[in-house]
Amino acid sequence: MHLHDLWFILIAVLWIGYFFLEGFDFGIGILTRLLARNTAERRVLINTIGPVWDGNEVWLLTAGGATFAAFPDWYATLFSGFFIPLLAILVCLIVRGVSFEYRHQRESRRWQRNWELAIFWTSLLPSFLWGVAFANIVRGVAIDQDKNYVGTLWDLLNPYALLGGLTTLVLFTFHGAVFAALKTSGDIRHRARVQATVLGLVLALLAAAFLIWTQIDSGNHWSLAALIVAVLALVAALGANQAGREGWAFGFSGLTIVAAVGMLFLSLFPDVMPSTLNPDWSLTVTNSSSSGYTLKVMTVVALVFTPLVLLYQGWTYWVFRRRIGVQNIPAAHH
Amino acid sequence: MDLAVAHETISRWQFGITTVYHFLFVPLTISLASIVAGLQTAWVRTGKEKYFHATKFWGKLFLINIAMGVVTGIVQEFQFGMNWSDYSRFVGDVFGAPLAMEALIAFFFESTFIGLWIFGWDRLPKKIHLACIWMVAIGTALSAYFILAANSWMQHPVGYRIDPVTGKAQLTDIVRVLTQNTTLVQVFHTLTAAFLTGAAFVVGIASFHLWRAKQGKQPDKRKTAAMRTSLRVGLAIAVVAGLGTAISGDTLGKVMFEQQPMKMAAAEALWETQAPAPFSVFAVGDVSKGHNSVALEIPGILSFLAHNDFSSEVPGINDIAAAEVAQHGGQPTDYIPNIFVTYWGFRLMIGFGMTSFVAALIGLWTTRRRFWLAPEHRTGEDEPPKLMLTKNREMNVFFTRWSWRIGIFTMGFPLLANSFGWIFTEMGRQPWVVFGLMRTRDAVSPNVTIGTQVFGLVTLTALYAILAVIEVGLLTKYAAAGPNTDEKPPAKDPTLRGPSDDEDADQPLAFAY
């Protein structure tokens, strides 16, 4: 295997890791409005991701940095081309990060409610926009011979991409509900399960439509296999959730994300950003990658440090393994 | 304005605003992480309450600050692609590597362990919890290292070749990129300046509380005890870091005289090559004529700064520009950076930074507890110190009052010095984005329209302005409140396995959002 193929896989892994992890904490953010009935419950939800959301978000930064290092042209075309959606995501991530940290810093109810609203909207919007962005990447966009995106913002909001956005939005919310059922105790835990079932059913429809559309438009054998895994995993997640096996349900909803996002990357390969104007102008793993030496250096770094990251992030989840209920929420703020 | 110029100008403003803003939080984060880690270490080792309160207090301010540092850092990672796509294509092979390393090696580290530290007070054994904040401190410093390696490559590209087919920069030696002297000296200078920044911040807030205690407005002696310790810690760090900043700054200057003579000539408004070259104290330049209309100079000093002897030759702006024309073509003015900004940026950097250093030096002496101090002037651990000039002589009321005030007022001086320093070094490199290889005007995204760029600039600037108000409000609130002395350390040392589920089920969390 050539190193740029390996790096295509590594970048897919980083994005999958990002959507797996930040997927549920976006979902938790959205559920603060859908599931939580009062402030105490909202705080229960927020605290299930309190210690880990920041580490989860670094997967995005690493995916971005790794794309820059391994595929500079992909990085340049993608981020200059999708300027406005990306700007919106950045604004959301900025406000969202601050919201978690600042919400509890003042007693005022208004202050707290504003930050809670911010958490909801800044979780919802990126969940949608990431789907839009990835659907466009897979579908192909107007890229000229200089590798520059020459379409408009409105071209990015096509039906296929909007369906992709809806799919990731519901997927992450579902994943969040399953996570909430796994990490909370008491009444909210049971309601989370019920909501997960509803969300899972809606998701099944959306995901089936979006993934089959993807398969027809740009699929291959490998992506078909991933599609089947995604569908089976979703069914299994729903079943496990129904049976009250929360750990399994979370594992399967995670697998749904892995397979669905994996499918997008499998249908993309060997392109990284196909051009709709002329197939010769598409960005591929060969024409947009860094030199062999850079890839070699980065491979060594990735092979040493990625397992380390998984180890200490995994340990964090173990340290904060216990469930949280309203009874664990301290009355006074710090 | 010419369209191409507008393109470049807007992108530069956005990069300038977002980066200077981001860098307000970075040095505070780097240094406060270590200061908090040090205080917590003192608490774990001695069990003294004042260290616990100090740890919690500075930890709180540190967290308010790091939140902003983290989120504004996200923009940094992506705006190269958004606004500078041609730059990204040209340098990605080299420049992307340290950026990706930063994310994978440093940023994961600090973000994961900060979560463990914030929420781990009742989950982790004391010593492991302490190790977490040290991990954060190490992570922040490592972050700085990788980012500065990337920046140093823009200042002085090494370890690369230009690919004859694509015309792009290609990495040939990662070790050189990570260890070239520009990188090492910049890291030294930036980290020492970061510690000066955090130390001045600590000194300022501690001075505020101690001055209030001195005036009898602060009855809680435990607060005073925590603040007194903090003051001494802050002053000591400021002196060491201030000295380090001066030494590393001098070294970096010498490196720059060699690698970017234009930047240094511009910093001195030295138009003509001179031997010996004078240090400019004050100058009003005339760029179109290429000379200073007013100048006040100290002979020989610039030669010394550049080469360590008082008579060596230092090349002037006009000669360097002529040499650049010979090499790259164009007009001499194409190669002259904004003299006003570089000249004054350089001076303000040194001025603000060194004022802080001198203030700390005086503070460290006047607040000493034992040495050369008559026993009757020593004050208790939980009382504000007397400001002692000599063994028996205390400062008079007027100077005492002003000393405490200066402690408070100089709190932000290193922050200003950092900003002026970065503005100086980045603008002094112009017209180059990668020195000698790529011009800034060729680096912008060709496909992003002016309207989109303006929208991005306005959005981020407005958002940052709102967040600045919120963050300063919070910092002021908690800084003014002082340590929460009602807070008690966890009663027993948690074990890693944690309490059994039954015991634990209804316990409130030690910390919750």
Count of alpha and pi helical runs of chain A: 12
Q: What is the radius of gyration of chain B computed over CA atoms, rounded to a whole number of angstroms?
A: 25 Å
Low-confidence stretches of chain B: none
Shape of chain B: globular
Largest sheet of chain A: 2 strands, antiparallel
Biggest sheet character of chain B: 2 strands, antiparallel
Total strands of chain B: 6
- Main sheet strand line-up of chain A: 1-2
* Estimated structural class of chain A: mainly alpha
Query: Rg of chain A to the nearest angstrom?
Result: 20 Å
Oligomer designation:
heterodimer
Question: pLDDT below 50 for ≥5 consecutive residues: which ranges of chain A?
Answer: none
Biggest interface between chains = A-B, 79 and 82 residues
Helix/strand/pairing category of chain B: mainly alpha
- Helices and strands of chain B, in order, run as HHHHEEHHHHEEHHHHHEEHH
- Helical amount of chain B: 55-70%
Number of helices of chain B: 15
Order of helices and strands of chain A: HHHHHHHHHHHEEH
Mean residue pLDDT of chain B: 92
Tertiary shape of chain A = globular
Can you give the helix content of chain A as a percent range?
over 70%
